[in-house]
Specification:
The chain has 391 residues and is α/β, with parallel strands linked by helices. It is 61% helix and 14% strand. It has helices at residues 2-9, 19-51, 54-80, 95-123, 132-159, 162-187, 196-223, 229-240, 275-293, 309-325, 359-371, and strands spanning 247-255, 261-270, 295-304, 330-338, 343-351, 377-385. Helix 4 (95-123) packs parallel to helix 6 (162-187) and helix 5 (132-159) runs antiparallel to helix 6.
Amino acid sequence: MTNFLVRCFIKDSENIRAPEVRAAYGILGSITGIICNLLLFAAKLVIGTLSSSIAITADAFNNLSDIASSVISFIGFKLGKKPADARHPFGHGRFEYLAALFISLLIMVLAVQLGISSFQKILQPEKPQFSLISLIILLLAVGVKLWLAAFNKKLGLKIDSASMAATAADSLNDVLSTSAAIISMLAVLIIDFPLDGYLGLVVAGFVMYSGFSIARDTINPLLGEAPPKELVEAIKKELLSNKYVLSIHDLTVHNYGPGRRFASVHVEVPGNANIIDVHNMIDQAELKILNQMGIVITIHMDPIDTDDAKTNRLRDMANTAIQKIDQRLSLHDFRIIDGSSRIVLLFDVVVPPGEHLESNNLEERIQKEISSINPIYHCVIHIDYDYSIAK
């Protein structure tokens, strides 16, 4: 069914990097959710009213909140596909994250409401009435919600959408709450103890955890999280495959919404290489990363003197010295100024992700370690932090 709907309503469905195609997936999921939840609301409201079942009537209005979630998702995709403008040069892709955040807040509000009503039922127990028609409606609702969850999850994975993942989780939460109502209804036939309130509290806990998890996963890209390790390795592999690139550092990736990633990186290249050839290589690498990974990357080149034996020896010495302090430290942009009375070593030291060592203290320790080798060595150190990999 999912593939059929995609073929019918989404043109060029495999071109998921295109903003209009992404939006088409999101809009398809949102409209499908609105239609299904409207049908469930109408069916439950009618059956609940005719059978005087408070449980089914309450579940009907729960579907109205699901419609609100789908509407929020719809708006998020509509706004997210807007092109960049003067005030928002990186586009509007983060609207998808905001939509997912709103949906997570709705889920948590519903969890609180479910918890309160469940606690009230524990204090004032009320034996549920078994009704065959109610049972059939609830079972059908579970089936529809399971399909909606699978539908949104599949589309969400296809386009890497946080809001569709949130909608899928919301559907699964409805499956839990409706299943609890079914279990309590069937339990009446076996035991005389009302389970409704206790099951409701358990479900409320699961729903709250689900809402919190979605909010956490959505807030991370809004605050600015480290890029996936696989992406960092792919960028490194591509750059290091070029014959002029000796090493890379200062890789930073910014995420402005799905399909809107921007990056910058420094590459060390031989100082004796032809600058035109190196520049052409950098242009080709930027274009290849854009075409293959969808990332707009800016590459800065740092020329390194690889022919001078003294520079190479002192670089190795400095690297060994900082490794004694902390094996996770590394250096780059090494160069020397050879004076008559002292030799100045200039370099950057990269601090591992998640570590915030006192810059002055670290510089003093490195200077002390290198001066112990020879007092004529004076260090000019810049402390860098690795923003490319999460701790």
